[in-house]
Amino acid sequence: MTKEEASMIGFEIVAYSGDARSKLLLAVEKAKQKEFGECDKLIAEANECLNDAHKSQTELLQMEARGEHIDIGFITVHAQDHLMTTILLKDIINNLLDIYR
């Protein structure tokens, strides 16, 4: 896999996890306003985005596991970092939402 191809998958991961991050932060705002139905909907949408990001990530992992060479660049590293921090944010927000409820 070329660096450009890996970067495109990286961009997918960044986009999906970025969408998830936005939805998670909006869910907190909805919880502050006691709009828990909308909050739950946003959390579910964020989880779907994270699932899509994981699918893209898994594609890279499977290629490497098969022994294929993947030329990793900064965009791919950034994508992994972005996904990891969004997953951490999800965990923190889920605990925060328990307090709001």
Automatic annotation (TrEMBL):
A Pfam family reported for this protein in Swiss-Prot or TrEMBL: PTS_IIA
Protein name: PTS system lactose-specific EIIA component
UniProt modified residues of type Phosphohistidine: H78
Complexes and interactors: Homotrimer.
Lineage top rank: taxon: Bacteria
Places the protein is found: Cytoplasm
Gene3D superfamilies in alphabetical order: Phosphotransferase system, lactose/cellobiose-type IIA subunit
Matches recorded under InterPro entries: PTS_IIA_lac/cel, PTS_IIA_lac/cel_sf
Keyword Phosphoprotein: yes
Alphabetized UniProt keyword annotations: Cytoplasm, Magnesium, Metal-binding, Phosphoprotein, Phosphotransferase system, Sugar transport, Transferase, Transport
Required cofactor names: Mg(2+)
Record's keyword annotation contains Endoplasmic reticulum: no
